[in-house]
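Records of this kind hold a single protein each, on a pair of labelled lines. With that in mind, the following record should read easily:
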Amino acid sequence: IPLVINRTAVKVTGLDNERNMIKHIDGFLTETDAGGIEGFSYGAIHRKIVWNYTTQHRWWPRLSSIRLEKESALEAYRTISMCSTPIVAYAGRFFYGQDNSHYMKTAFSRMKKLEGILTDTEPAKFAAVLYRGKAEATVDFHALMKINPDAYEIYKCLHSNGIQTMVLPAYLAEDDKSFLSSFKIVCIPSSLPVNDSLAGKLEDFVKGG
């Protein structure tokens, strides 16, 4: 039985607890402030199971609409594209027209058909954008980083040009000697202070080609 936690609940208790907890779990589910590209990247770099809410888990009102169902289905497809699993937090929703239900049904049917391909897959490591501090993500795949807008803009630039990119906390580069060398591109936002330790690792990364 896999051990899966609520990452948001752990983040509330502090960074040290999150860094320790990730070593002992099989995966986590992402809520509003721990999801998006940052949540996917954090799970991928640690090779963990990621369950991602397709909407805010505090969904209200319960009356859904075609627009909301389409947005939820799009998030489901984006989640699948990051080798993660979409979960629906508002199963108790309702709508006036039964036709509205097919958007999510189609998304999960597609995931079932691709099960053989998706099993044991993981995002490729190519480009990484490092950030400092907490990434306040929305449920949007692109994870609007309110505290790290420059890191977000770098990510958008790379992503819009078809470059697969992860957004990750800078402390990972200091914890793991092989972290930087596992990527072809490493981006340092202007808001990220670079200490001597990180500077040395970046210098080695550049020298390594």
About this structure: DSSP finds nine helices and seven strands in the chain. Residues 5 and 28 are 5 Å apart (CA to CA).
